Amino acid sequence: MQSRSARSISFPCLFAIALVGQAASAQTSAPMAPPTTPPIAPSTALPAADAGNPKPSAPAATPTRPVVPAETGKSGAVRPSAPKTETLEITERRTATSERRDSSASKIIITRDDIEQYGDSNLGDVMRRLPGVTVGGRPGRGGPPAMRGMAGGFTQILINGERISPGFSIEQITPEMVERIEILRAPTAETGTRAVAGTINVVLREPLRQRNNDIRVQVQEERSKFSPNLSLSRNDTMGPTGTYNFTISLNHNDQLTDTATKTLYTDLPSGRVTLAQTGFGQQHEDRNGMFLTSRFQWRLGPGEMFSIQPFIVHNKSKSSNDGLLQQQIGANPAPYATSRSDADSTFTVARAMVMFNKRLTPDLRMELRGGGGQFTSDNKSVLRDRNASGAAVLTQTVDSDTRDRSWNVVGKLSYNWLDGKHNLVTGWEYEDVKRTDNNTTLLNGAPLLTDFGNQINVETVRKALYVQNEWDPHPQFSTYLGLRWEGIETMSKTLTSPVRNSSSVVNPLAFGVWRFAAPNRDQIRVSLTQSYRAPTTQNLVGRPSLNTLFPVPGPNTSVTPDRAGNPALKPELANGVDIAYEDYLEGGGVISVNVFTRHISDLIRNVVALESVTWATSPRFVSRPQNLGKAVTSGIEFDARFRLPELVKDAPAINFRVNLSVYDSRVDSVPGPNNRISEQPKMTGNLGADYRFRATPYSIGGNINWTPGFETQLVDNQLSKTSTKRNLEMYGLWTINSQAKLRLTVANITASDLITSNIVTVGNERQSVTSNGKTSRSIGLRLEVRL
After folding, report:
1. Shortest CA distance to 556 belongs to which of 625, 467, 650, 623?
2. What is the DSSP string of 161-185?
3. Distances (CA, A) of 560 to 91, 125, 336, 628, 759
4. Per-residue model confidence as pLDDT tens digits over 417-430
5. How many angstroms separate the CA atoms of 474 and 477, rounded?
6. Do 280 and 773 meet the contact criterion of CB atoms below 8 Å apart?
7. Whole-prediction pTM
8. Is 554 exposed, middle or buried (0-12, 13-18, 19+ CB in 10 A)?
9. What SS3 string covers 325-375?
């Protein structure tokens, strides 16, 4: 099936003309002082050598002959000045605060100290404390992160500046593997515009020019189940120009998950309950994992570097789920009384990235980057349902595997001109992903979905071109203009259900930063952007997933639908405005307020409808993604990070971290109230503080994460409800000596359960399913040693 090509041409010509006009006006302007604002840091982690400035920890080189002192401009470009007879090398210590202030785009840097502060076992636990980030799932458990509460792909997730493979989750990364996290609230031409809500870029460990070994041993307890973790990281040099980092993490996870459900069908005219069921399920998962990442890099000259970065992730798990179902009211008997499912799964991700930076002239730099890898997943599961007498009523076996092979190449040219006032960047990207899904499903020994075959082959090709120009017309004012074209083509080569979907977008971008005159360190940011969200491969050509509570070939219900894809989907397009005020305190603290809005067209949402399907003799309810039309979301975001003495003189040296975000949204085609974007809460916030006792080796800290409950009208007859989420956690740190630390963490202290409801009205009947996800307190103990 061929879908229409979706294109966005809102003002691209205007922005292209503005780019040229901006450059032309700059050529006729009078010379000005060198800029004080470097450009946006690349989303892919670059070492300090690449920026022309060594890391603070690197020893300064001592030349044996006179050299030309270097002056650093945009993108770390080094411009020679007049020859001198003395050697002078200046190393500027870049902090997360200074990088945030100097960036043209709104960017928040989360450092290694912040990432490791609470001794989290996975990166998903770290995410819930970040400004404007919500985490799916129940409190105390990691989940997919979402910026501005917009889940389901509105947030672009990158690892070292590259999009992650489908099926891979950042929850599978341990904090020890991460150097820093970058949060970009608006898209840029270089990092990509598939970021309606924003971008989270996870930068893996970088090598240092010093030899050390970091060892971390951790054990976490929850419900008398123990999950240990061991990680080892080594930094060292390779000759006079080479450095490397090698980090490996081994973990074992033993976890119990309890879920209670209640199903009610009510006849609305009479108020009579026609069906009442209660269920309970306990899942026990036993998982072993390994994550290995390394980086080898060589400095080839000033601003020149070659690096190789491979990483491997491997996980193997066994899980079982025991369920009970009791029916209090109902015309027909319950589909089962007891159930048992067993599953074995393994997945492996192996990928390598090569990067080469070359200075072609003093003002022109080239960057080439390429990568390739494979994602594999194998899953086997068996579900057995029995009635009250113990007789088997349903047996379903699923044997599936996925092979995802991908490669990409990226090229970029950066040109500093007009005494460094301009930084012009142009680049291109090409990516090819081939995916093969094999699936065999047997229901009571008979194969299902034979019309779709056992194998689905999908290929996705993505191409992109972009140009951006940063200009500092005044020491207090910086501008950025960018333009990005991106095209995606998805092709399914399956003979039984061929699919071909093509889309392309042209996204203009503009930023401006006004910095108040010294000594005032405040500044105002404004951005006008256009971004988009492309349909996923699963949404386009996904093999149907059948509900087993009401098995085929019979009918099902609206709250227990089958799921299938939609090959006619178009990408969502969003026009956005961000305005921020940032106050930079003298001691390094930051207080900021940001307001934003996104106007979205062709919003994608899953819609349940009764269909005649090939896999059943009776019509069945099927949930498919559809383009609903227009939507708008807006909000205000407050975040602050400071030491109390910066605000209150002679106060205790307590470090505070505070963030609060308030959101609102409206989907035009859905009647209100609460016709919000799916899974977006009305509010979320964090309050954290830590304190180190003077003249002692002890530190303490805590954080509370809070997201109030909310309701969402999904379509005219479907409503979802989510209860309040709270997560209180505390830690204590004992610095034994300069080489060893012991950290104790208590997480999810309040252990608040997560209650969700799905309510559908069909004719005169209201059908509802309410789930209660139990949570538990967990305790972690970690020993950190540096040798």
Report:
1. 623
2. TEEPPTT--GGGS-GGGEEEEEEES
3. 62, 31, 15, 22, 11
4. 887 789 999 999 99
5. 5
6. no
7. 0.84
8. exposed
9. EEEEECCCCCCCCEEEEEEEEEEEEEEEEEEEEEEEECCEEEEEEEEEEEE
